[in-house]
Amino acid sequence: MALTTLGRISFPNARTRARTARKTRRFGLNTLGVLVALVTLFPIFWMISTAFKPSQEIYSLTPHLLPAHPTLGNFSAVMSGQASGIGSVWLFFRNSLLVTLSTVVLASLISLLASIAVARFRFRFRAAYLIMLLVVQMIPGQALIIALFLDFNRLNLLQSLPGLVLVYAAQALPVSIWMLRNFVATVPRDLEEAAAVDGAGSLRIFWRILFPLVAPGLIATSIFSFITAYNEFIVALTFLGQAHSDYTLPIYVTYFFTRGGAQWGPIMAASTLYTIPVVVFFLIVQRRMTSGLVAGAVKG
Amino acid sequence: MVDTVTPQPAARDRAAARPGRAGPPPGARFRSLVRRYRLAPYLLLLPSIVAIALVLLWPVIQVALYSFQNYGLPQTTGAAPVQWIGLANFTATFADPEFWLALRITVLFAVAAVSLTMLVGTLVGILLHQLGRVMSVIVGTAALLAWATPPVSASVLFYWLFNPDGGLVDWSLARLPHWLVGSTDWAGFNWTTSGALPAYTVAVILVVWQGFPFIAVAVLAGLNTVPAELLEAARVDGATAWHGFWRITFPLLKPIFLVLLLLSVIWDFNVFTQTYLLTGGLGNRDEFNLSLYLYDKAFTFPPSYGLGGALALILTVILLIITVGYVRASVRQGALT
Fold first, then answer.
1. How far is CA A196 from CA A8, A130, A144, A192, B54, in A?
2. At A115, is the pLDDT very low, low, confident or very high (cuts 50, 70, 90)?
3. How many whole angstroms separate alpha carbon B102 and alpha carbon B290?
4. In this structure, what DSSP letter does residue A210 have?
5. Which of A123, A192, A299 is the closest to B335 by Cβ?
6. Helix/strand/coil for A155
7. How many A/B residue pairs have CB atoms within 8 Å?
8. Spatial distance between the Cα atoms of B5 and B2, rounded to a whole number of angstroms
9. Which of A46, A82, B51, B220 is a good FRET partner for A139, with 20 to 30 A between their CA atoms?
10. Which H/E stretch holds residue A284?
11. Which residues of chain A neighbour B62 with C-beta distances below 8 Å?
């Protein structure tokens, strides 16, 4: 290091050359970065832009980047239910929210219990259980859907939101448990032991010590099960069939889309309304989300 | 929480005190049972095991059974008896040229989508690593938005972008010089109904757009763990950035790459939502991948749950083979400790 510093000082020309090279490099990298960001954002921009265009602009021979005469007509057609013919977008919003939140609560509860077992105890089938989780999360949804459809038909749970919640919660479990166990494992056992020595019962220890410390992990797994349930397609498509009033948002958008008529304005308005909440949610929880997911990806 | 493998002093005292009392309440008896046989972990696992068994494991077993039966609509209502028909569903599947077409489409799509997603993701990950803080946040946020877009929204959106009637892509291609885009008449070119190649080109672009951010963020996290001194030392010794990447960074990130590769293969092999929407429901039989082919066999009237089951089994076996690789890669990383 000392040698190179000496060299730089004695050759001022080389120094400026190095600085220019650095500047050029930085400029190139930033240009590349802007390009990547623009290309990545463009489809989303186009969806929102189309949603605000009146139909003669949507089908005009020369597309405009921004709507020349922005309109809320597409949104009002979606909200009144007039565009899809099966109901207002708010109905499907409500369905999606109900399914998603119930899934999050159920999956969090079950996976917290399981992750405590896996992180705090050494028992006989522990490794087998963990491997089972890994294998089970790989089972393709398409392979299950036939039997699930027939079983839930017998149980009278098709065309109902509780049926969906059951499936989504179970599907979220393997990854949730896998993620959560790392969080439980980081809670120092001494803390719990100290509380036990002081006479705190199991429940008290759980609420006062373990729960607050595991809460960040629970948030991460909740985000995961939220996204899975909010985006889920094949089970909802198969289960809900013609039960229009029970449609979740993705099935509503699909119905709208496959019904034909190419109402791109209202379809893009519906997609925008479906996309915005999850995107905003992501931006808010961004840091936690990526770190949690990366931990999941790197560790298993 | 107290009931760990080595009982805590306080807990042991309480357990010892219990037999002295006459007729312990049922709750206490249950608790001592749990303690004596170390049932606590199993009780905690019970809800998850029940849920997973009912919704994930039992259906797989059922589907495996259907695949050896003539299970269809009459059998579900009891109008006709369920018969064991041996391997007939499998021989019927293997004799169907549509199956082989679907398999070919699935494999080619997975190869194209996985390699492009990995390539783009890794390059963007390296870019994020090199960028300054502000630019890195901008690019990272853009990538996050693409990743966060629900698959149904993204598919509908790409269908619209590639639509022959008012879509932006055809309009742009028609305005580019012929030497660049070939002599096809792009104005009004229908990407989604002109056979598997154009339809899956759109699908690959869509899947790469949605998938690269995850790879990029994971690669970035991996790059941050590579000690800077190592690369610095290599640079001082005269190694180029290219050499530094392949000789130092890549070997260190290899386990992460392996897991990401396997996950991508599994995801892209399974793809359903995007292809279902892009190929127009189940409208175009020559654009089926294995998932669509399975779904069509099982649910298009008249439904054949037996044939669908056979296909589900084939799909699951292929994925299990890949999964074994995934588990082994995870174990090698010490995920089970």
1. 64, 29, 45, 6, 37
2. very high
3. 5
4. I
5. A299
6. coil
7. 314
8. 9
9. B220
10. helix A264-299
11. 147, 150-151
